TrEMBL record:
GO terms for biological process: translation. Belongs to the universal ribosomal protein uS17 family. Residues 95-128 are annotated as: Disordered. One of its GO terms (cellular component) is ribonucleoprotein complex. It comes from Metarhizium robertsii. Residues 104-128 have a biased composition (Basic and acidic residues). It holds the Pfam family Ribosomal_S17. This is Ribosomal protein S17. GO terms for molecular function: structural constituent of ribosome. Gene3D superfamilies: Nucleic acid-binding proteins. InterPro entries: NA-bd_OB-fold, Ribosomal_uS17.
Length: 128
């Protein structure tokens, strides 16, 4: 399992910081706005260019307005490619009153158990 953690740590190129703009409307998913800027050559000026990411929130512990840190992870669905690393600044309810955000090791362990259960189901289906 330590090799899985090492591979995941290498895969993290950088972490992004953003604000949760939509939470509670989708199961285990939040929308995070990450700030950015874009240079306009005609006007010679920087303009705001925020990007929105759909982020996997396994325990549904985020609320709208939270400032969070997100990192790239394995694809969870068609548009979800990032996962919450930790909450930087909570908005509303304190962090200790919410479900905890799982660590990288916990997420890898959960993924491995789900993959093992799937392989077992597939094996039992082919043997029948």
């Amino acid at each position: 399992m330590s090799s899985q953690v090492a591979k995941a740590a290498r895969r993290v190129a950088h972490e992004l910081h953003g604000v949760v703009v939509s939470a509670g409307l989708m199961q285990k998913t939040v929308k995070v706005r990450v700030g950015g800027q874009k240079w306009n050559k005609v006007v010679n000026k920087w303009f705001p260019d925020p990007k929105h990411y759909l982020v996997h929130d396994p325990n549904s512990s985020l609320r709208t307005g939270d400032v969070v840190s997100i990192v790239p992870g394995w694809p969870t669905s068609r548009h979800k490619r990032h996962v919450v690393k930790h909450i930087i600044a909570p908005f509303g309810a304190p962090i200790n009153e919410r479900p905890p955000v799982p660590t990288l090791e916990e997420r890898i362990e959960d993924r491995e158990t789900k993959k093992a259960a799937k392989a077992e189901r597939r094996l039992s289906r082919t043997n029948s």
